[in-house]
Design goal:
Helices cover about 80% and strands about 0% of the residues. The protein is built from seven helices and no strands.
Length: about 150
């Protein structure tokens, strides 16, 4: 629940500073967390909070790519600013080299040898990188390693 307290404090700060963008994004994050809490019927764990934040980040990144394809520069800039705000609440993201090292480690641990072991590797790897790496990056690196 510490994250909700932090979000409430950030909302107050944004209101006082009349920062509409930050206020809007923080409200959306808070709403997503509360909705998840209602859906599960219990207090969220830190992993649950990371998962909700990762979902919020992923949604914005997907919107960003769509806005770029459509040539909507006004929305591109706003979405990039929203992404920076959401990233403040997530743990530091792993770079590609760190994820690649983890992939190598998990492949060795699971004894994976080919494409048939893809699911086994992903099942062991995803909890380790939850909220710290993009799933598409992990997927791509695992496929490359198993081919």
């Amino acid at each position: 629940m510490a994250l909700l307290d932090e979000l409430n404090a950030q909302m107050k700060t944004a209101m006082k500073a009349k920062d509409k963008l930050t206020l809007s994004v923080v409200r959306m994050i808070k709403t997503a967390l509360v909705n998840e809490q209602i859906k599960t019927g219990k207090d969220l764990t830190e992993d649950d909070e990371k998962s909700v934040l990762a979902t919020q980040l992923k949604q914005r990144k997907e919107s960003l790519s769509e806005f770029q394809e459509a040539g909507r520069e006004d929305l591109v800039e706003q979405t990039q600013a929203e992404i920076k705000i959401v990233e403040q609440y997530l743990p530091a993201q792993l770079d590609e080299a760190a994820v690649s090292d983890l992939v190598d480690q998990v492949v060795a641990e699971t004894g994976a040898t080919g494409k048939a072991d893809f699911g086994k590797v992903m099942k062991a790897l995803m909890p380790r990188v939850k909220g710290q790496a993009d799933g598409a990056l992990v997927n791509r690196l695992v496929k490359a390693k198993l081919n």
